[in-house]
Amino acid sequence: MGSELRLSPRERNVLTAIVETYIATGEPVASQALARHFGNKDGMSSATIRNVMASLADAGLLDQPHTSAGRIPTARAFRLYVELLGGPQIAILAPERLEQIEESFAGIGTSQQYLERTSHVLALISSGLGVALASTQELHTLEHIHFSRLAAGRVLAVVITKAGSVLDRVLLLDHDLTTTALETAARFLNENFHGWSMERIHTELARRLADERSEYDRLMHSIEELCRKGALTADNAAAPVIFVEGVANLLAGETDRDHLRTMLHALETKERLIELLNAYVDARQRTVRVVVGLEDAIPELRDFVLIGTTARLGAENIGTVAVIGPTRIQYQETINAVSYIAQLSGRIFQPPQ
Questions:
Q1: Distance from chain centroid for Cα 1
Q2: CA-angle at 146, arms to 117 and 243, nearest 5°
Q3: Measuring CA to CA, which residue among 277, 279, 256, 263 is closest to residue 322?
Q4: Fewer CB atoms inside 10 A, N or C side of the chain?
Q5: What is the rounded distance in angstroms from the CA atom of residue 210 to the CA atom of residue 275?
Q6: Is this prediction's pTM over 0.90?
Q7: What span, in angstroms and rounded, lies between the C-alpha atoms of 221 and 104?
């Protein structure tokens, strides 16, 4: 990859200029355009630039499409360009961009609202898809539960997860439970297991049921049956919550109809996008990851880039936020936007002092 190459300062400057010109225009970059860009500074004549471009092409960093006199960056060149941006990832954005983001997140109250708004904002300010995936932990963590008696032996369980999802299921019980028993069971679960994962609640209930053979016996058996019938089954929340916006961005930037059809087919199922995020963004990482060329996960996305990271509240992972777009993306601004929005989650959900 880029780290294996040793480019001279002159080669780095030319490569950076080629990549940024290509991102801006979408056209092959000719030596004459670069000569105008550098203005003969630092001995960068047209002949020198042509020699440098030939060297970069030999290194696998430039392609020459058809018989065009210009060159375009390869995926390897984009990877190296991202490395050359380098340095600590500090989310520095233009004041108007910061204001736009801050206004967009006003009034957010749940992590699900945050993720949904994130996909919208990232699509709005990038040339790609804005994607936000709720963490599995958030999906399977209890915020609140409520039981309603529908008829003898039939109960409606409504579960709200920490991600903000509302899950409901009709339970068919072996023994009828009164409204009072259901209210008592819901109160017990909300008071004792708020913030617990579904799996952990099941384990703890089984332990307590084995231990408690006193006045709690009847209550524990009622709760055990409600859970056994599916009130707190992880399957309720098994479908990952993912928000995706910005397909129009991709349509606007793609003129090859066959490639467009292939690309949209690759992106049409959310399951594939979830696999993509899980493949490239580690839930433990603290920095923005940039992956140029996504063919290892989805072959049709070889000309795409993923810029993503995890959003956190302290040590807790809320989810993954990312932009998926063409390699001709504004890397620095997109990296900064993803980083800033991910950090914003900690401020939005920070409890009042």
A1: 24
A2: 20
A3: 277
A4: C
A5: 40
A6: no
A7: 47
